Write the structure tokens for this entry.
Amino acid sequence: MYMSHFGLNAAPFSLTPDTRCFFGVRSHVDAINTCVSAMEMGEGLVKVTGEVGTGKTMVCRLVLKALSESFTLVFLPNPANTVAGLHRLIADELGIDEQVTEDKLLGAIQQAAIAAARDEKPVVILCDEVQAMPDEVLEAIRLLGNLETEQRKLIQLIMFGQPELDERLSQHSMRQLLQRISFSAELTPLSFAETSAYIDHRLQEQGASPLFSTWAKRRIWVASQGIPRLVHQLCHKSLLLSFGRGKRRVSAHAVRLAIKDTPLARQHSVLQAVWG
């Protein structure tokens, strides 16, 4: 495609999260530090929320990487629809025999967690898309957090979800789960300074010099509203359009067309771009 044209080693704005290209914006670093510190202190339950496209998957993968040596990790990337389904997913990740019947799964999970704690590698469960889980599954998550010895929690949990999760937790029926959350973190949209540095970082990681002018990056920031996934889409389209016209840097015209072609991008005037 356009990689050789711009001197790139690989596509810099792929939508697949790559931890090797992580750029530490403040809310992401804060969320990672919160999760890791809470687990190391045995705090039990942590919540991380962020709008669609703000980098929850990237943060989740980096937390997994940071905890991998000291904890037994269970990663559930898709929401369970039933309590039995949740327990089966956890059991599979813990290597529990698939022949264990549904009524004995929770006990088997507890025994696996006791064994992991004895080996000084306690269990941490990371659940993504938690806002989509039914109430009974959220309650089952709370009950998993109740498994403990006299000295420590047997299972700790990190919940990742969209802002709708906060709305769910504000309901009266969810008050017990809400009270169990020790720490929370929020992934916020990038500022213009963060967006500008992020774009340059992604290009430099793939061997290219800066290809976007400050003005082009500002238009992308305003259009994306600081959402990393939209930044990626707009940058990719801008590079593709500039390549098609034989340009060696991204043109203002290409950025305008990329914004127009992206449904979720904020359409804006030059004056709006100036004021943000």
Q: What stands out?
A: The radius of gyration is 22 Å. The longest strand covers residues 155-161. The domain at 190-275 is CATH 1.10.8 (Helicase, Ruva Protein; domain 3).
